Amino acid sequence: MNNLQKLHVDFNQSPWLDNLSRDLLQSDRLEQYVKDGIRGLTSNPTILEHAITGSDLYDEQIKSLAHDGLTTEQIYWKIVEQDIKAATTLLKPLWDESNGVDGYVSLEVSPNLADETDETITQARRLWAEVDSPNLMIKVPATEHGVPVVRTLLSDGINVNVTLIFSLDHYRQVAEAHLATHALGMINNARSVASFFISRVDTEVDARLDTIGTPEALELRGKAAIAQARLAYGVFLDNFAKTAVLDTNSPAIQRLLWASTSTKNPDYDDLLYVSNLLAPYTVNTLPEETIANIIDHLPENTKFMTLPEIAEAKRTLDAIEAIGVDLKDVSRTLESQGVKKFQDSFAVLLAAIEAKAKI
Q: What is the distance of C-alpha 82 from the center of its chain?
């Protein structure tokens, strides 16, 4: 058993791959990752931008679709849906084996619809129908206009990956949306995960602590993200622990997904956001480099998250706020940056497709 498999077997945490490309599919690398212990994957506009602009594997299909009269955005959805379908087919046996707990592939709605609730619902329903795979998750941002989308899609029986969660308040809203559609006695097989972003929180908070510059402030660097995630897990326990005890595979459980878990600061341990966030009923989405690091050197003393650590996390965040960091402003800033980053990637991607279509 390698270290990646150990995350699931020993800690009941599912490692998912944070990447998707045609090269990954055609080279059999994705198949190998599954053999090594990967139990799902996610994609987003930035990942897909890198996949399509950095490869010539899509060029002929782009030209063919353009010749058929499709618009640039229609071409995008056609080629992405092809990759998503291939990935869901590859992971479907894992979905079957896990009784619908793992084996999911996430496809994100257009980031240009971040402020458009009704349009997002319409597009999500279309993508769900066109991909037509039970192990698909439609990825929706946890913005003000996105949370109502989550509730509607889950009510429709559509699996949802709720992304860009940077605060405990937003996570509570996302958990409530799931709970409202999976009430006691309600039969709803739709699954959802709540994607709580990690490393970007430390990047933003650390910059603010550096600006404050006192010894007390500098001592708190690298602690905000893990502390906030541990408190989020406390919220998970409050909402879903009873269900998990009664039925470990229940669709009524909305698992927490740790997103953005590669270590951005080279001064921090390369598995900081892996070894400190091991807890049952969680998912960790991992870039390929972090997967390699886990297989190579997951610390032997790695252990489950504990209740005392969750209590200590509250004191850590209180100390960060007391020293002058507004954590609500941090979450607003990161959400705005996250939406804009995906919108910028989408624009670059569409421009690249348009250029390839004309060659």
A: 21
Q: What is the CATH number of the domain that holds 277?
A: 3.20.20.70
Phi, psi of 244, deg, nearest 5: -60, -35
Beta strand segments in the chain, E: 13-17, 40-41, 104-108, 136-141, 160-165, 192-197, 255-259, 282-286
Using an 8 Å Cβ cutoff, are 330 and 208 in contact? yes
For 229-242, the pLDDT digits (tens) are 999 999 999 999 99
* Percent of the chain with pLDDT strictly greater than 90: 92
Task: Give the structural domain span for 90.
Answer: 3-358
Decide if 139 is catalytic: yes
Is pLDDT at 329 greater than 90 in this prediction? yes
Q: Are 104 and 191 in contact (CB under 8 A)?
A: yes
Q: Are 143 and 114 in contact (CB under 8 A)?
A: yes
More confident residue, 45 or 25: 25
Q: Are strands 104-108 and 136-141 parallel, antiparallel or unpaired?
A: parallel
How many separate domains does the chain show? 1
- Which residue in 6, 35, 78, 139 is the catalytic one? 139
Note the pLDDT tens digit of each residue in 7-16: 999 999 999 9
